[in-house]
Amino acid sequence: MLKDVKGNNGQYTALCPAHNDETASLSVRMINNRVLLYCHAGCTIEAIMSALNLPMSALYTTEEPRKSQVKKRKVNTITYEYKTPDGLLAYKKQRYEYDNGSKSFAFFKPNGGKGRRGESYPYNLPNVLTAKTIYFCEGEKCAEAITKAGRVATSLDAGANSIWRKEYNAYFEDRTVIILPDNDEPGMIYANKIAHALPSSKIVKLPGLPKGGDVYDWLQQGRTMAEIDELPTTEPEPPEPEISTENAPEFIKINPFETPEARQRYRWEDIGTANLFANAYKNICRYCPEAKSWYVYDGRVWRLDVGGIITSQYGKALTYYMLECQKYLDDDTQRENWIKYVANRIKKKNRDIYLTTTPTGRLFI
Questions:
Q1: Which residues of 122-150 are buried (b: 16+ CB within 10 A; e: fewer)?
Q2: What CA–CA distance (Å, rounded) separates 99 from 97?
Q3: pLDDT for 228-284, tens place per residue?
Q4: pLDDT reading at 147 higher than 90
Q5: 72 contact partners, CB below 8 Å, separation of at least 6
Q6: Which of 160, 145, 78, 88 has the alpha carbon at shortest distance from 121?
Q7: How far apart are CA 254 and CA 264, in angstroms?
Q8: Alpha-carbon span 103 to 136, nearest angstrom
Q9: What is the DSSP letter of 100?
Q10: What's the pLDDT score for residue 39?
Q11: Which residues, including other chains, have CB under 8 Å from residue 93's CB and lie 6 or more apart?
Q12: What is the mean pLDDT of residues 85-89?
């Protein structure tokens, strides 16, 4: 079964069977008759159990798994094609729908292999480039609904967790962009992200939607795109002040995958990200436990970062640097998992978690 197992008292490490592991990146814990698995390289539990040729029920030491863990059944698969500006197939995204109402997604290269080689484009890009007005929504299902209604729509390929890439801006120059957010907090975060990147765009909230509802639901209600065109616009929330690692000469560029020791120190969890932050910014930003505050270096002296505002922005800048670090990963599946991990750390509430609750990520002055 597992190889190079070490540990005791219900906590172990081992070589992950789901990838070519040389650093014992798999953590194994026993809690309440249940086995918890976590691969610091990003492999899913399903991939690990498949590599072991074991069912998911084997994670439970009792005879029957919990009801909530009964294997769900796939009932529908939808494929979306993402194309380059020239109309060539860049990658495919598959949406899997299950009998319990849940969904999942996977990316595939044109040759059928998993992943997308680090590429990313807005959905329906060739049509976007020829349109004067574009409706920006959250998800391909919504974009397809708008297309069927006779308009041109697009979406980012990772939903509300998508990262806006600077190269996207050129695709929307001299075009009218109307952003249609889902009716929830992630939907507005997504809309604000796009509005900040495209200052001439407009946000339009759709009235009468249930919580989490979207433009697909709006059109299913018998409403029309013409009605949307008559709705008032909403101002985006003020953007957070931008700080770039390129503008911070003392920022230390670290390859978090360079050595086995680096992979362990900067592992894919809050403490690993905290360690990366602490070491990359050690000449710029430090935490003082006595004052319970962050301090930033202005080139001459260390100054109090009131409210941790600058520190939080350094954390945001770090996530964009982490996104660049995907170039150090050769495996497409690991690259995809890394992108998802980083995208989740861009959210301010998740940045604050590793900045304020992981002592090993703090440096003292």
A1: bbbbebbbebeebbbbbbbbbbbbbbebe
A2: 7
A3: 999 999 999 887 666 666 666 688 999 999 998 898 889 888 888 888 998 898 888
A4: yes
A5: 98, 99, 100, 102
A6: 88
A7: 14
A8: 22
A9: T
A10: 77
A11: 79, 80, 82, 105, 106, 107, 108, 140, 157
A12: 97
* Cα-based torsion angle of the residue sequence 129, 130, 132, 137 in order, rounded to the nearest 10 degrees: -50
Kind and range of the H or E run holding 287: strand 285-288
What residue has token string 């976007």?
128
Q: What is the pLDDT of residue 206?
A: 97
Delimiting residues of CATH 3.40.1360.10 domain(s) in the chain = 120-229
Encoded tokens for 252: 């230390």
- What is the C-alpha separation between 92 and 83, in angstroms, rounded? 9
* Helices marked H in 52-113: none
Residues constituting the chain:
365
**Would you say the C-alpha torsion 11, 14, 18, 22 has a positive or negative sign?**
positive
Q: Is the pTM of this model over 0.70?
A: no
CATH 3.40.1360.10 fits 120-229, yes or no: yes
What pLDDT is recorded for position 70?
63
Please give the structure tokens belonging to residue 345. 């750390």
Q: Which of 4, 25, 13, 3 is nearest to 331 (CA)?
A: 25
